[in-house]
Amino acid sequence: MSGTPGRIAPKRRPGHRLAAAPAPDRARVSGSRAHAPERTFETPPDDIRIRTRGLTKRYGDLVAVDDLDLDVQAGEIFGLLGQNGAGKTTTILMLLGLTEPTSGEAWVMGLDPTRGPLEVKRRVGYMPDSVGFYGDMSGRENLRYTARLNRIDQSTANATIHEVLTQVGLTDRADDRVDTYSRGMLQRLGIADALVKDPDVLILDEPTTSIDPLGVGEILDLLRGLVQERGLTILLSSHLLNQVQSVCDRIGIFAAGRLIGQGTMADLAARFGDGAGHLEVGLDLVAPAEIERVRALIAAIDGVTAVVRADGPARVWTVAVVSAAEAPRVRTAIFAIVAQHELPLTSIREVVPSLEDIYRRAVAGPAVRRAPETAA
Amino acid sequence: MSAISREPSAPRSVPRSVPRAGWMVIGGKEFGDHLLSARFIVLVIVLGLAAAIPLYFAAAAIRAVASSVTDSQAIFIALFWLAPDVGNGGVTLPSVTGFLAYVAPLLGLAFAFDAINGERADGTLPRLLSQPIHRDDVVNGKFAAGLAVIGIVLVSVVGAIAAFGLIRLGIVPAASEVLRIVLWVLVTFIYVSLWLAFGMLLSVVVRRAATSALIGFGTWLLLTFFGGLIVSLIGGIVAPLTGTAQEQLRSIGIQETLRRLLPDTLYREASLTLLNPQVTSVATPATLGGYQQAQQRIPSLLSLDQSFILVWPQVVGLVALTVACFALAYVTFMRQEVRA
Predict the structure, then answer these.
(1) Chain B residues touching residue A119 (CB < 8 angstroms)
(2) Which end of chain A is more exposed for a tag (fewer CB within 10 A), N or C?
(3) What gap in Å lies between CA B113 and CA B215, rounded to an integer?
(4) Candidate from B7, B16, B130 with C-beta closest to A126
């Protein structure tokens, strides 16, 4: 594996004034940046729906978002991944002009949300974390209110509301009072609410936290469909790794206010993976002596670093390989052993690193590196 | 659904100009909510009762004397300010305006104490602010809705009192009396607005609606019922009623000034002067000579503009307090973080 694992400096565009700035120690750079004179950046090209450069937000001593460089392209689903308090919501609020950044710049649809929040908010649908509605009004009435605030005329609004309610699967309960809704229904209504204004960009803060597993699938399908049909761009934040993995085109990993990596799953796997390959081998062996013999045989293959047999009825063996590139060769060697010794092989497959592995490693990385700084 | 299936980055083809500002949309919704709310109904009943009891006795008192004082031009309006004696024991009930002075603040507080923190508690504030409206539209719209509801309550209660007076007394008010009543309603409106603005301020500053309601009602109790006592206490220490008559008058003047720090006093002085043309002065004379003069003055009726000039400072004071409260709420809200 080439390149340094761990933190990556996001790509900077040529002609961009930041490109000249040294990037090594981000804490120091951003610290001096708070007092730096205002820098001017060129407006990003059309296909970049959301861009931030050096976006920073401090609350007193606490740095909620630290020097964020983010690019979200048109027609993609971008996932912000991070623990609670990692700065996801603060970032979203800055993108909507609901919170002023301490320093740095942001563009949404080519507009500056701090200076022209109205136009940004007209074109961006937002569902906040733990979204709420007026309990004494029905779901439909709540959406009508949103439509009125967006100055959508009534007939257009009614048609749109009907459509979005159908999309999120709430038509049956649309005329019930919202205080009879479950948490999951509120989130569905929240997504419908964000769609009422017919946005170009959808920003969803923890969109699926309270929805049941089956519902989550529906919602994620809906989001995919919206991107395909309407060409929407979606930015969603979540701490649910598998959902992010299943729906997002690109992912940005947040930790302690910093974006420690962004890219596709493959990019992230390449940057944060340890480079090792893994094979899952199903061998239907029960006798301890037999198991030991086979373990020794597999461990003897060149490039295998460890062989672990999972306890329990699954009888799956995990074979760690020194590098992912070596995995196919090791697989062939296992086939040879299986054929030679007539072993009861049930399955064999190469394991791709999950987002969870990547995330764990990515988050652990900077924490380890930062330790000397805090000690000094 | 042409609006939906358009090109994502194409310019808006559908005109989105429903020509209504954000604050009007919010105000309209809040106004509707208020009118349908339980608190609206409860307050109309409370206010109506507060007005009806003294009204009944005042009407009886007026009927008793009305036949003998035909020359007075302002009998009808006495309905509002006359503090009637009840029974023979000489127990005096507060007048209609006195009762309103007690309960009117409730009206203002009730429609504002949860204006902003209620939205926070429901989790609707971030969603509301992410719509294409200015942040101050929220405060402005809610304040406007509160003003509208207060206006409706006041006008209907006063209208009911006037109707009762017409029927029970059989006296048709003179034009000047109607004008006095209109002005008095206006001053009452400002007084209630002050409490509305105060409630709004609480709803911005205090995170929990229940806490802000408690603080609001506590302040109301303190200022309306104990405020006078506290001010007298302070006045007694600062300017005790001792020494010559001249010195005592000076002390009374200081105590009066202190009392005017209470909005309650400002409202009472303004409303009594506006309603009762016989009131020719809101202040105790500052000198002994002035006092004697006041004693010797022939009772006369002030014209409406003279009454108004007399209480102009009180009215300005009330307006200033209202504006100050609202401005504070406004600025605080504009600087607050969306997230709690």
Answers:
(1) 132
(2) C
(3) 9
(4) B130
Q: Range of A315's domain?
A: 277-352
**Subunit contact A132:B18, Cβ cutoff 8 A:** no
Q: Is A79 left (phi over 0), alpha (psi -120 to 50) or beta?
A: beta
Best mutation target, A58, A91, A156, to test chain B (most B CBs within 10 A): A156
Here the CATH number for the domain that contains residue A214 is 3.40.50.300
Do the Cβ atoms of A98 and B130 come within 8 Å? yes
Residues A55 and A87 in one domain: yes
Q: What is the pLDDT along chain A (376 residues), one digit of tens a residue?
A: 443 443 444 433 343 433 333 333 333 333 344 444 455 567 788 889 999 999 999 998 889 999 999 999 999 999 999 888 888 999 999 999 999 999 999 999 999 999 889 999 999 999 998 899 999 999 999 999 999 999 999 999 999 999 999 999 999 999 999 999 998 899 999 999 999 999 999 999 998 888 888 888 888 888 999 899 888 999 999 888 888 888 899 999 988 888 888 888 888 887 877 777 888 888 888 888 888 888 888 888 888 888 888 777 767 888 888 887 888 888 899 999 889 988 888 888 888 777 888 888 877 765 444 433 333 3
Does residue A7 belong to any structural domain of this protein?
no
Minimal Cβ distance to A151: which of B5, B9, B18:
B18
CB-CB: which of A150, A232, A233 is closest to B131?
A150
Q: Do A163 and B4 touch (CB under 8 A)?
A: yes
A249 and A332 fall within a common domain: no
* 8 Å CB contact of A200 and B8: yes
To the nearest whole angstrom, how far is the Cα of B219 from the nearest Cα of chain A? Answer: 29
Residue A90 belongs to some domain of the structure: yes
Q: Which of A249, A272, A295 is the last residue of a domain?
A: A272
**Count of structural domains within chain A:** 2
Q: What is the CATH number of the domain that holds A319?
A: 3.30.70.100
Same domain, A315 and A287: yes
Do residues A29 and A113 share a domain? yes
ipTM computed for the complex: 0.83
Pairing of strands A250-255, A77-81: parallel
User: Does residue A369 lie in a domain region?
Assistant: no
- Does any domain span residue A368? no
* A320 and A236 both lie in a single domain: no
Distance, in angstroms, between A55 CA and closest chain B CA?
A: 17
From A233's Cα to the closest Cα of chain B, the distance in A is: 9
CA distance A152 to chain B (A): 5
A219 and A190 housed in the same domain: yes
How many angstroms separate the CA of residue B8 from the nearest CA in chain A? 6
Residue A268 and residue A282 in one domain: no
CB contact at 8 A, B249 and B284: yes
Verify that A124 and A174 share a domain, yes or no: yes
Of all residues in chain B, the one with the smallest CA distance to A229 is: B5
Query: Per the CB < 8 Å rule, is B127 touching A126?
Result: yes
